[in-house]
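User: I'm writing a tutorial on reading structure tokens. Could you give me a worked example: one chain, its sequence, then its tokens, then a sentence or two explaining what the tokens reveal?
Assistant: Sure. Here is the example chain.
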Amino acid sequence: MKTKKIPMRMCVLTREKLPKKDLIRIVSFEGNITVDPSGKLNGKGCYLKKDALVIEEARKKKILNHIFEMDVNDEIYDELLRNI
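And here are its predicted structure tokens:
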């Protein structure tokens, strides 16, 4: 019997490769940045580990500003914390 392949993605802050279900996807599409809980929205996406410390570190380092090359407001980080 074949085993099911688990999709792996990398956290942009910790650089860890983790199963997709252990990460939160953030998407930039047409100038809007949103949290993508389904993992299927169109646009440029990146992943952060589902960990409050990692999200707070990303806020402090402004990692999403660098990745999406635009200002990311704190509401996105607050929404990420609610989706943990």
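What the tokens reveal: The chain has one domain: 8-82. The longest helix spans residues 52-61.
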